[in-house]
Every structure is written in C-alpha cells, then in structure tokens.
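We modelled the chain as a single entity of 764 amino acids. Its sequence is:
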Amino acid sequence: MSEKTVGGAAAGIRYEWTVKGMDCASCVAKARGAVERVTGVSEVEVSLMKERLRLSLDEAHDRPEAVERAISAIGYTAGARRRLDGEEDDGRGGEAEDHGACGCDGHDHGHKHDHASGSASGHAHGHDDPAERNLSWWQTGKGRLVVLTGALLVAAWGTEFLVSPAISRWAFIAACLIGLFPVARRAVALLRAGMPFTIEMLMTIAATGALFIDASEEAALVVFLFAVGELLEGVATDQARSGIRSLVKLLPKTALLVDGGRSREVPADSLAVGNEVLVRPGDRVPADGTVVAGSSGVDESPVTGESMPQTRSPGDDVFAGSINAEAALTVRVTREPSDNTIARIIRLVEEAEEARAPTERFIDRLSRVYMPFIVGIAVLVALVPPLALGLPWDVWIYRALALLLIGCPCALVISVPAAIASGLSSGARRGLLMKGGSVVEAAAATRLVAFDKTGTLTQGRPVVTDIVPFADAQEAEVLTLAAAVENGSSHPLAKAILIRAESDGLALPAASAARALPGRGVVAELAGRGEVHVTSPAQALEAGRLPVDLERQASALENAGKTVVVVHGADGPVGLIAMRDEPREDAARAIRELARLDVSAVMLTGDNARTAAAIGEVIGIEQRARLLPEDKLAAIRELSQGGPVMMVGDGINDAPALKQASLGVAMGSGTDVALETADAAILRDRVGDVAAMIRLARATMSNIHQNVAIALGLKGVFLVTSVLGITGLWIAILADTGATVLVTANALRLLAYDPARAGGQSGT
C-alpha cells in the first residue's frame, strides 16, 4: 500500500524509482524501512500498485545510489530513476543485480538494469518496461530460483536412490544452502534495517535449525516449497495489476491530425488542446474531445463499461480509448493526453491505495504484535518441554521450527489489500470509481442513499412534453412561433423548444426586435405574424391573454410538475407548451434495486414541492423540496443520525452535502469535479450504478471476511498440529504459502464479479 513518512518540510531533491518485486503490504513496509535508514532521506512514499518509490534526498549526506543499494539489498530491483523537479539526473540508476525472489509474496521480473556511477552521463526515465511484464515465469528471478532449487532437490533424491543415504545427506544440505542463500541475505539486510520479524528471518532460522537437528532432506524441501509458493504468490498478485495495465492499452499510439484540410499521422501523446483529429470507423478515439463534425455510434464500454454504443454528434463529448463504430468523426481535443479520462481513472485507482480500509489498518496493527508473539511461543516450545520435562531436544526444536513457519502472517496481511485492489480494479473497468478501502467499507455499510434531483435522478435538461394548441391552431404552428421567438436564446427552456423544433424539421420565420421580459418571458416581431409573446401563465393572465380554458389546462400541467409557457400572437392566444426535466430511464428501477438491497432512498432538491412530488411519484422515492445548499447539508446531518448515509449528486452544487455524507458519490462522465470532489464517482450517468457500487462494495467486504477466515483458520489448525507433532516443517511451509495463494486467488475472483446484474449476491 502507499505509505508516506513526513519528517517536516522536504529538505532535498525529490527522486522517483520504479521498484520491481513488491506484491503486498509487507513488501511495501520492508522497502520503506530500508530506504528510511539511508542518511538524508525523508518524505518516503512507496506505492504498491504503481511499483513506485518517491522520496526526498539531501545529497549533502548521501547519493541516490545509496537508496538503490538499500532496495537491492532486500531483494527488490530498483529500476531507472528520475528527478521530479525537472532537472536532469546525473546517473542512470537501477541495480544490475538480480536477487531472485523478493522478501514476501514478491514477483521479481528478473530484468537487468544498467547501473552507472554518479559520474555517468545520461538520464533514465522511470517508465515501465513492457519487456519485464512479458517474461515467462521461468525467466523471472523467482522462476529461476524455483528451477534451481527443484533441480538440486531432484539431484539429491537421485543421489540417495543411486548412490547412498550418507552421500545424499550432503546433497540435501547443498540444495538447502544454495536455495536458502538469497533468502538469508535478505533476512540479514532486513535485520540491519530494523525489521527482525520477517518471513525471511523465520525461514532462515527454520531451515538452518533443521540442518542442525539432521533434518536436511526436509530443510531442502522446505526451501523449495518456499520458492514455489513465492512464485505462485507473485504471479497471482501481479494479476491484480492487470486491470490497470489493460486500461493503458486502450489508448492508441497514433492519431490522424487534421491540418489544412488534410490528415496526417502523429504520435497520440503529441496532441494539444484545440487540435482536431479524424477518427475513422473502427479507430479508437486518441484523446478526450468534442465532436465537431460527423455523427456515429461510439462504443464507450472500454472506459465506462456501457455495453450499448452511444450516438455522438457535433457538440457531444467523447472519451479517449472509446471505439468509433460507424462513421468518420472529427474531434476537437479538449484535454492533454496526460490528463484524459483513462489517465485520470488510472491515477484515481492507484492513489486510492492511500485511503486504507479500517479493517486493513487493524490487520496491520495486529500483525506487528502477532509476529513477536509467535516467535515467543516458538522459543517456549523449544525450551520448556526439554528443560522442565526432560523431553528430547531435537523433537521439540523441530516442532518449534515448524511453529515459526506456520506462524508467518503473510496470508493475513495480504487478505485485505488483495481484495481491495481487486474490487477497485473491477469497479474501474465498469465505470465505478471508489477512492480506496475506506470508501469500500463505507459503501458496504450504507443503509440510506440521498439523491440530488437535477442531473442525478433526472436528465438535467428540460424537454418538451406537451403542446396544447388553442382554437384552430395546430401543434406545429404553436411550436414554430415559440421557437422563432426563442431563437438564439441560451435559456434551458428556450433550448428545449428549439431542440424539439429542430427534431420536427420546422422552418422558422425571421424574428426581429426580440426582447426579454425578466422573469416573465420573451417577445419578438415575426414576419407575417406581428408581435408574438412567449410568457409564463402568470404573466399571460395578468396581461389578459389567457382564456379560462387555457388557464385550466396550464394549471393541470403545472400540477404534474411541468413548466408551462403561453404562446400569444397579435390575434390572440395560439397555445401552450409544457416542459419538464424528465427522470432518467433507469431511475425507478434503480430505487427498486436499492430496496432489494435493504437500502432506503430520499430525494433532496431545491425545486418546488409540486415538481419534486411529481418526479418522486414517477420514480417511487421520498422527497424533500425547496432545499438550499445549506439545507441539504442540514438534511444530511439529520439523516446521518440513523446510520451511514451515501449522498449522490453532480459534484458541483452539492459539494457541501457530498462532503458531509458518510460517502459522497458524484454522477458525471469523468468530469474533474466528479473525479476529485467526492469519495466515489459513477462515470456512466446511470442511477442503477449506485446499487451496483453498493453491491460491489459488499462483495469486496465479504471477500475480505472469507480471506481473514482462510488465513486465521489454516493458521489455527496447523499451529495446533505443529505443536502436537502431527505436521512437520514441509507441511508448515506448504500451509503458509498455500494460505497466501488461496487468499490471493480468492481476491482475484472479484475481477470477474459483475455488480450490475440485478439481484446480485453480496458475496462472490
């Protein structure tokens, strides 16, 4: 997980390294502890998901190479380094050593890095090397260690079978020592870094002790099983990062830049805001932008998880990485390539490591006490029976060594972060972004969801719902006159009328002398029709332009929660137009899904009570109306007294309420506010994804509980059997590594979990 050690203000140069081989919270703690002991180091940040180390270094005390040596000494590979202040580094960074397996659950890719002294020229950038991720398991450091120790073990067994047990004993000793050497070296390095209670140290003590009590065959087998277990753990944990890596692959490497009426191929990362690019059918959109020409179905599933292609026309936004499915589009770039939606999703998921779940923090605290406790028990098991009861020393030392191995808390420590990482990655691929483990726990505990209305439960823009002609007028005439008067206006109601007129293909007469009547309506001169008014019913009634029949119909429409305008020409009233911000298609279904999850819902809106009631009745939700931002804040405080409350809003006007709620969720297609203001974000603008987020959070917490049960259950069983002498050293290490693999594999099941399915289970 990402940790930060702050020792006051940074007093040095900020550096960054890619560190290979870290695969669990314990690995992060080891890396952090090792580099913190380097003189001049401060503000250490270690990120597991990014495989990244950042720190401040006062070079008056030591050089960056000292940090690389510290990382290398504990079995990880410090890749190319770079300075974060933009200055050129005077060394390439990275150790040329390959130390085999990492400290705990690691996955050393075995990739060699050139290392130059401080006087070497050149500058190495900290980019991921794809080659490191494409190595087969036997090409990695851990894979080579498994092959080596396995070959030595087979050779020792062959010697026992073909030659003699006396000679095979030395073959087993050699196999054990050769396989144990990199583990013991890391154990000593970690001991020097102030970390004595590590799996490396327990493994070294257990294997060495087994040799001293003449259990060389079992010692060699234990070393081999340890190497196999670490390889499996590393491969499994590496899969948890695959979701993030797959997002990176969505972005095309090149783009067709439109320049002077022609298109030419350029690197996608060279695009700038304002550039226009051609996106052909079948191409991926190279950058976030706005369509300026063309209309086509766009498959946004790689970004938002939305399965159906969405029609995108001029004025519509498109995401980088989405696929143009039908016709050519010209897109104007609106974001730098480094700040597109996918890049921000990746950053969000990676940085979510810092928001650690309360359960994870508890497990970490427990493990710090647990390890010394197990070592103390093992010492007592080794000493008390022989000294107090005169029992054989070799038997009880053997049992104590087995106890040391089974007592390693690796599976327990990784049980929570593995599930959280898988849950976050699964959500990110489906447009559900949660900022860390604490957010996952809060979402799982939610029992009440408070929704904003406009833009959350509704579309956020009014649409024409009714056209009521008067006397001999026709619907087309009413709409044509209103649209001609409103032409050019940016008012939401005017836009609704104009959009409907355009969709109906109406030709608008020329308007002149248009003027607004503030709070009342608009009036303009139309060719052949004279002065035409588009006003509120209240204004029309006051001016004597609203007959009784129209007044009655206007009142009925307003009682249905609609906004009504009266169209009145020089010859008298022409008709009414009613508009409403309609509920989202899935809003009612989403509220029913929440009810099935035993989650209540309430709508908080600043709109009038009549409109709120009309929308609430359609959706099936309780409502509170006429709420100012401070009123929403007070409402959230009141509702929170009954338990955790999730607030869902647009991330802008609802910011105070989003912050006050136990969990603030922003609706919005990747907007800055949606990704940065709230604790979580829903990219697909679907109300149903609120239930999906809660379902995913509950599945993740269920997975965590399963993992903790697996880890503690296996430990409990084998601790007892080890003390009683029922199971030995090789069973102990097999149980320990097996528990870690089981926990990791169980967590990885979340990557395939689909929280959007209706009636999904709370677990996997």
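As a brief sanity check on the tokenised model: The domain at 252-339 is CATH 2.70.150.10 (Calcium-transporting ATPase, cytoplasmic transduction domain A). The first strand starts at residue 3 and ends at 5.
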